[in-house]
Amino acid sequence: MANVVVEINGRKYEVPSTSSIVEACNLAGVYVPTLCNHPRLEPTGACRVCVVEVEGARNLQPACATKVQDGMKIRTKTDRVEKAVKFNLSLLLSRHPKDCMTCEANGRCEFQDLIYRYDVKDAFPTEERISAIYDNSSPAVVRDLEKCVLCGRCVRACSELQGMDIYSMVDRGFETLPQTAFEMPLYETDCIACGQCSAFCPVGAITENSNVRKVLEELERHDKVLVVQTAPATRVAIGEEFGLEPGSISTGKMVAALRRLGFDYVFDTNFAADLTIMEEGSEFLERLKKGGPFPMFTSCCPAWINLAEKLYPQFLKNLSSCKSPHQMLGPLVKTYFAKKKGIDPEKILVVSIMPCTAKKDDITRPQHMVEEMPGVDIVLTTRELGKLIKTKKIPYASLPDEEYDNPLGESTGAAAIFGVTGGVMEAALRTAYELGLGKPLPKIEFNNVRGFEGIKEATIDFDGKPLRVAVAHGGANVRKLLDKIASREVYYDFVEIMACPTGCIGGGGQPKSLDKDVLTKRMQAIYTIDERSTIRKSHENPSIKKLYEEFLEHPLSHVSHELLHTTYVDRSKKKSSTLETVKM
Predict the structure, then answer these.
(1) Domains, the chain
(2) Which of 18, 105, 308, 464 lies deepest, with the highest CB count within 10 Å?
(3) DSSP state of 404
(4) Closest of 380, 342, 366 to residue 225, by C-alpha
């Protein structure tokens, strides 16, 4: 990649020739305000907040959508630029509600930060949108479009990254809004609840469907046994909510904070990830014996389950019947753990801390009821946990490290890598290989299913039998792969699907970030946890072995199927009104 020399505010810098002006300024450490721009999305120059002066250009240029040229002279801090930025922010503020104190985005709102930084007052009369939409039909996200600043990030994230095209900009001028087709409530569309729209929204126009107040009430009332579990990806991201470097591993501090919040037991969803591998790996071995159906798809991602049920029902028979790890741990808490502790299951409240908004939708599925009770009662995203800890004024960064409670807190490195794309596949192969063949793996890492490539494939030597496997992450890549499989253009034995880009570390409920390398840092942290783990294979977890001995008997047992496995429903629009349950 060739470099060019540009001059920014009188100083010369060498930057890559492919850089936009805003990227060049970031490399030079020069601040340029942005609102519609995001490093993981294609630039549009919609908001005009990032305008700069470029010598020779008659008009101010949008820094996000203008490429650098050799010898270009850029000025970011002139009276003309400042006046334009404040004017554009004032226009946006004139149509924005002033309810910051009660807004879910308060304290992490990019627009709020810009208004404060540029000391913008109400320069224009406030106008109320007649067509503003409030939509809380989805258990996953809430849309309050009166707060929309027309950045278009939600539209681009849903289209570019997820390939779903749920939103598009409709109407003109003042009434423009990112809307669903025919203004349908979100829950009635093909939305898969991934929450990427909420992760990219810079304001409070699209947020996770918050349960922070509900959990606060339960903690303060405390008339139940309060149990909390944390997903693999939360431990490498929650620190960002408190100013720690992305990718900081703060598992011990997270556990300590949850205890100080008032939870009675803090368990690790990683334990259930090991359990998932035992069940899913055994299921795959069964399919190898019986000759299919292939490919077998992993089932840990609830947004992927929504996608399959709504748009690819022909693959429902191929889905693993295993529940996601948090939906395995919840039922175990209300059966196995409750019996060991002598607790009435109806007196237990299970809260899951997830990187994922789709888990909020997941707990509403009737298939996940256990003895007429939900397996998991409430889901909080990583962002919501950050807000809860801040609300209770707990000094997160200075907390001592603490350990998870047992017997549902012990896990392996294989469980940790569930948080990244390719991790479920790699963990499953580690266990399926050794359980199926009765001999150790020649090499424990499967590097060919790791990394950021949208679709990865590999051939695994299974004692002389070649197994074709594939990994896809991000809805757009997932749909490409599924279409190829459906048309028989490609064949695989085992496929891992994660709806969010890079898997759970890039989930819709993770901390928001404008760091272009944030996902790389989180991924590296996950693999570091695996490498540091004493036990790196799910079937070697002693607590998992004990669970089977005391309660589950063996993988795929009757008890396992009752508590740990599920069914799927064809929800495609092509289907008649009679819904069909697909049993595995």
Answers:
(1) 3-77 (3.10.20.740), 100-109+119-209 (3.30.70.20), 213-569 (3.40.50.1780)
(2) 308
(3) P
(4) 342
| Residue 103 near residue 147, CB atoms below 8 Å | yes
Burial class for 373, CB neighbours closer than 10 Å (0-12, 13-18, 19+): middle
Angle at 314 between CA 309 and CA 319, to 5 degrees: 65
Residue 461 host element (H or E): strand 455-462
With tokens 């304290």, the residue in question is 107
The one-digit pLDDT tens for each residue of the chain (584 residues) are 699 999 999 999 999 999 999 999 999 999 999 999 999 999 999 999 999 999 999 999 999 999 999 999 999 999 999 999 999 999 999 889 989 999 999 999 999 999 999 999 876 777 666 567 899 999 999 999 999 999 999 999 999 999 999 999 988 777 789 999 999 999 999 999 999 999 999 999 999 999 999 999 999 999 999 999 999 999 999 999 999 999 999 999 999 999 999 999 999 999 999 999 999 999 999 999 999 999 999 999 999 999 999 999 999 999 999 999 999 999 999 999 999 999 999 999 999 999 999 999 999 999 999 888 999 999 999 999 999 999 999 999 999 999 999 989 999 999 999 999 999 999 998 998 898 888 888 877 788 889 999 999 999 888 888 999 999 999 999 999 999 999 999 999 999 999 999 999 999 999 999 999 999 999 999 999 999 999 999 999 999 999 999 999 999 999 999 999 999 999 998 664 444 445 44
Half-sphere exposure of residue 291: CA atoms within 13 angstroms, side-chain side:
0
- The two structure tokens encoding residue 150: 């027309």
Q: From the centroid of its chain, how far is CA 151?
A: 21
